[in-house]
Amino acid sequence: MVAGHEGAGIVVSIGNDVESLKIGDKIGVKMLNRICGYCENCHISGRDNKCENRIDLMVHKFGTFQQYVTIAEGEAVRLPQNVDLKKAAPLVCAGVTVYKGLKETGCIAGEIVAICGASGGLGSFAIQFAKNAGFEVIAIDLGEEKGKHCKNLGADYYLDASKSDLVKRVHEITNDRGPHGVIVVANDIKAFEQAFEYVRDFGTIVGLGVPEKMEFRADLMNILNRHLTIKGSILGNRTDYKEAVALLANGKIDIPIEVHGLSELGKILERIHKGEIMGRVVLDTSK
Ligand SMILES: [Zn+2]
C-alpha cells in the first residue's frame, strides 16, 4: 500500500461525466476519496465525512505518495488559482482537522483555547485558525525552544509541558479558571488526561491527535461535577473544507513548511519520530 493521505495538485485528466472540473484546475486531495451520497451520514447535513460506504486513500486505494491519484469529482477540494499548492497540501488533512476541532470546542470570540501539541503541523494550523476566530490562545508543547515558533504564529501564551505544575501555570494565566476549550493534538495520551484537570468548568476537550497509547484515565466525578464535555473529531465535512480553504486563499493562514523530494521520505519520517519537525514537511512527488 502506498501511504500519504493529504495532497494538492493540478487536474491533468478528467472522466467523461465530470462537469465541474477542467484540466489545469488546482485541487486538494483528501483521504476521503469518494462518498456514496445515499447512506444515513451522507443524508445528515455536516456528516458527509463519515459516509458509511466511503472510499479512503491508504485503506481502499493507494495514497498521495505518488505522482498521480484519482479522486471523485465531489470530493476534490476546489482551490482558487492564487493558492500555493505547497501551502494547500497540509491544509487538506492537518488544517481541516484542527479547523473542525476548534469549532467542536463551541468557543466564541474572546474565549480562551488551549492547544496541546501546538508546534507541529496540526498545532501550527490550530494557532492561526484560533486567532482568526478571535480566541485567546495558550500553546502547549514540550521544550522551551518551541515557544518562539508558537508565538510567531500568534499564540498569546506558550507553556512548556515538560516542566512540572502545568495545571498550575495554566490556571495562573486564566484567573484560576482554565481555558474554555482544549484541543489535543499531542501524541502523548498524558496531554489529554492533563486537560481534564485544567479545563474550565463547562469546558470542552476535543481529542484530535492519535497517540500510540489510546487508553486514558479520567475521574468521572471531575467530569460530571464540573459539567465537562469530551469530544472526538476527525477531518471535516465539505463546509469545513470550503471555509478553511477560503482562509488560506485570503492569506489568513500561513504556516511554515519545508519542501523535500519524495525520495527523501525515509529521512523525513525519522525526524518526525524524533519530534524534530515544526510546522509541516511537504513532499514534491516529482523529485
Ligand atoms: Zn454515504
Mind explaining what this structure looks like?
The protein has 287 residues and is of the alpha/beta class. The chain has two domains: 6-92 and 237-255, Quinone Oxidoreductase, Chain A, domain 1 (Alpha-Beta Complex); 95-232, Rossmann fold. The chain has helices at residues 40-43, 85-88, 94-104, 121-132, 146-152, 166-172, 189-198, 220-225, 238-249, 265-273; strands at residues 6-10, 26-30, 32-34, 55-56, 77-79, 112-116, 136-141, 157-160, 181-184, 204-207, 229-232, 257-261, 280-284. The strands form four sheets. Strands 8-7-6-9-10-11 form a six-stranded parallel beta sheet, with helices on both faces. A three-stranded antiparallel beta sheet has the order 1-2-5. Strands 3-4 form a two-stranded antiparallel sheet. Helix 3 (94-104) packs across helix 4 (121-132). The chain is globular and about 60 Å long. The two termini are 20 Å apart. The model has no long low-confidence stretch (mean pLDDT 94). It binds zinc ion (ZN). Residues 35-37, 39, 41-42, 51-53 line the site of zinc ion. Residues 2-283 form the Enoyl reductase (ER) domain. Keywords: Metal-binding, NAD, Oxidoreductase, Zinc. It is an enzyme of class 1 (oxidoreductase). It holds the Pfam family ADH_zinc_N. One of its GO terms (molecular function) is zinc ion binding.
